[in-house]
Specification:
The chain has about 240 residues and is mostly helical. It is about 75% helix and about 0% strand. It is elongated, with a radius of gyration of 24 Å. Part of the outer membrane protein assembly complex, which is involved in assembly and insertion of beta-barrel proteins into the outer membrane.
Length: about 240
Amino acid sequence: MKRLTISSLLAVSLLVGCSSSDDVIPDIPPSELYAQAQVSLQAGNWTSAIERLEALDSRYPFGAYSEQVQLDLIYVYYKNDDLALGLATIERFTRLNPTHPKADWVLYMRGLTHMAQDRSFMHDLFRVDRSDRDPEPARSAFKDFKRLLERYPNSLYAEDAQTRMYALKNRLADYELATADFYLRREAWISAINRCQELQRTYPDTEAARKSLTIMLSAYKELKLEDAIKRTEELIALNPQ
């Protein structure tokens, strides 16, 4: 029996994903189609919900359900890990409905979606340390949650956004620490010191900031900068790990 390779499986999944929902969803009244989508959504059947919501969105783009369909799509795309589609729908909805009553929720979902982009199933599965991975999605998520707190401080999602910002701050600080360590191992002493100093300024209350002092001390010792060595040793004594 011929074994399917990962690339083969991906090709099959892409072909399936490219099929139009209009080809499989019957032509029924929008109210009935929306009711079916809600049943699927409540059951956690994201694929079925997406098919029906996409059919509604394409067939009745300016119908009575238009705004709610887009909001539902934002949610089910996130739950189904269709993150690029989720972000595209968020951008479209925000552009068309800048003052919508659920604008805070949409911004919150934008943060969640960006945050999810920083996650990798394979990394989670094999417990791979992701501190040295590109943190751009994490930076975007941090900005989204910060904007939410600034614009909607009394939002129902403000408290959770604040909690997520704390986690993201540590994620970003860990990346800076990994970068500083990379420079140290490459004997780029000045670059390592500069990265540590930037980390300490930007994320001073993180574990990574404390750990960066050790990297900075090593770089100073290589450069034989006695005054800097002494100052850093004093900082380490004041900030034990």
